[in-house]
């Protein structure tokens, strides 16, 4: 059976870097606290001309260039985001227009930090049944527009950026081998966005301003470690593999302490765990595709390598996905 193979990757980070020292001027925090509790040193913040869809488009363009494909070759564009350019239409439709990918249908998915991995899984299922398809999957966020800059519990954690992968059919055994996806909506309130809800007769236009991220950090921390550990074990068992068989693990970049705990629990050697949370913070749906693109460009993944993604986010949602590069 055909498999969905990544043909190219790309990413786009905003120009502006926000350091921990600069955050000390905004909220009651310190470089020492942020570094020791999260591992984050800097994050990127989008500015003028760096709307979500523009970052997404550039990441997508770069992935297409690496794949040697024209935008016209695309059949489908999926943008995973929790900070869309507008609620309607989808950010994916803006990307489709910017790219000139007129043969592609396009839509967004929202599975928070798990969105890109859900998107890859979706693309993989399309390509399995229609191997001639070319699908662009993008994770793109401008979280700086959704963060409460007065809340030190959250504003130090998040960053902006976009990452992308183009997929097509492969017959040589390489590509997506399997995935495990989970959600638990009962725990939605651990990590969510404030703001108006879908039924409220009093809604004013101004109510939509300030729909900001709220998080119970310590509960999310514990859930993230357990869920990512479980979902990796589940996928490895399904694939009859062990962690020693894996060449590179690319986890969602939320917090270095979460990654360290995951590494201990799964026995992942240092050189098989990709980490860039220090540079970009938590970019939600963009975190894995940015890391994937960096790993690719740094030569950390070679043809036929087994690459394992694992992620966790609001919803709650969590997932793992295995591919042969
Ligand atoms: O993508 C998935 C979504 N998010 C995550 O994965 C994040 C998961 N959670 C975390 O990363 C961690 O829970 C945090 C980094 C958010 C917090 O670390 P923690 O070790 O769980 O700290 P805590 O929430 O237990 O807070 C400890 C203290 C509190 O002070 P008190 O109440 O003990 O006096 C906080 O007010 O640290 C305080 N604090 C801060 N201090 C300085 C919280 N944020 C800050 C800050 N600077 N930025």
Task: Using brief descriptors, characterize the structure shown.
single chain; 325 residues; alpha/beta; Peroxisomal Thiolase, Chain A, domain 1; 2 domains; five-stranded mixed beta sheet; four-stranded mixed beta sheet; 10 helices; 13 strands; 25% strand; globular; binds oxa(dethia)-CoA
Number of helices, counting only DSSP H or I runs of 4 residues or more? 10
The hetero compounds bound to this protein are: oxa(dethia)-CoA
The CATH C-level class name of the largest domain: Alpha Beta
Shape: globular
CATH topology-level name of the largest domain: Peroxisomal Thiolase, Chain A, domain 1
Helix percentage range: 25-40%
Strand order of the largest sheet: 1-7-6-4-5
CATH superfamily of the largest domain: Thiolase/Chalcone synthase
Largest sheet properties:
5 strands, mixed
What is the total tally of β strands?
13
Strand portion, in percent? 15-25%
Low-confidence stretches: none
Overall residue-averaged pLDDT value:
96
Note the gap between the termini. 17 Å
Please write the string of helix (H) and strand (E) elements: EEHHEHEHEHEHEEEEHEHHHEE
Please tell me about this protein's structure.
By secondary structure, this protein is of the alpha/beta class. The chain has 2 domains: 3-172, 3-Layer(aba) Sandwich (Peroxisomal Thiolase, Chain A, domain 1), CATH 3.40.47; 177-324, 3-Layer(aba) Sandwich (Peroxisomal Thiolase, Chain A, domain 1), CATH 3.40.47. The chain has 10 helices and 13 strands. The strands form 4 sheets. The chain has a 5-stranded mixed sheet, with helices on both faces. The chain has a 4-stranded mixed sheet with strand order 8-13-12-11, sandwiched between helices. Strands 2-3 form a two-stranded antiparallel sheet. Helix 4 links the parallel strand 4 (76-80) and strand 5 (105-109). Helix 3 (52-67) crosses helix 4. The longest helix has 22 residues, at 217-238. The two termini are 17 Å apart. The mean pLDDT is 96. The structure holds oxa(dethia)-CoA (UT7). Residues 29, 33-34, 37-38, 113, 152-153, 156, 191, 217-218, 220-221, 224, 254-255, 258, 282, 312-313 line the site of oxa(dethia)-CoA. Residues 29, 33-34, 37-38, 113, 152-153, 156, 191, 217-218, 220-221, 224, 254-255, 258, 282, 312-313 line the site of oxa(dethia)-CoA (UT7).
